[in-house]
TrEMBL record:
Record-linked Gene3D superfamilies: 3.30.230.10
Entries under InterPro entries matching the protein: Lon_proteolytic (IPR008269), Ribosomal_Su5_D2-typ_SF (IPR020568), Ribsml_uS5_D2-typ_fold_subgr (IPR014721)
GO molecular function: ATP-dependent peptidase activity; serine-type endopeptidase activity
Annotated protein name in UniProt: Lon proteolytic domain-containing protein
Limits of the Lon proteolytic domain: 154-237
SUPFAM superfamilies in UniProt: Ribosomal protein S5 domain 2-like
Swiss-Prot/TrEMBL GO biological process terms: proteolysis
One of the Pfam families matching this protein, by short name: Lon_C
Keywords: Signal
Cleavable signal peptide: 1-25
Origin organism lineage: Bacteria, Bacillati, Actinomycetota, Actinomycetes, Kitasatosporales
Amino acid sequence: MLSRLTRPRAVAVCAVPLVALLVTAAVAPLPFSVAQPGMTANVLGEDRGTPVITISGAPVRPTTGQLRMTTIEATGPDASVRLGDLIDGWFRTDQAIMPRDSVYPGGGDTEEIEKHNTEQMEQSQDTATEAALRYLGRTDDGIEVDLELADVGGPSAGLLFSLGIVDKLDGDGSDGDLTGGRTIAGTGTIDADGKVGAVGGVALKTQAARRDGATVFLVPKAECSDARSELPKGLRLIPVTTLKGAVDALVALESGKGSVPAC
């Protein structure tokens, strides 16, 4: 038998499950990760005393300036992210709340994810080398490239690795540096044909880039709007879709001749 409740009492009764739900949400782990700007590394330089790019089988030119690959740091797959963390991160510009599946798409435990990320990085390094040598027309020259970068996983450094190889072997094609002496940062995957792909987390990566001295940031064109959303003052965005386009843009920026694309 049902009886009719007065409105105040009905509200009170309905509030009980709502309060319980909020309390549960506040203390229960949620399927999200909290990300923030991570480390950057100059691919033209050294990492822990070891050159990031080592080339044998061809003369290597000295370079100036920097080409900095960028990263984000995220809470681990086993970390407990709760409602308070999400609310805090939502209102901060130096953090982002991301679905855990987008940060760790393969799932699995920490060891499995680290293995997957390492494999992606190694594959990215091989592809970046192939893309650079194809761009230079030197795939048959017997050139060997070794890429070393500790504690970084995933494929998003591909573009910067390729640019670093091009700069060390050919520069801007006229005995100048691709960087023009600047600190250039960026992100983007790359395939063997030199096509640049999106990576995610670009708004945080622009902050990492500016923090470490970059004045120019190469961003996959598809992610221009994300990169603009929290763009630090003093950082210029250059959208790219291919390795050739990235090289052409840097040459135009260095020489002051030709157009430099903008987001």
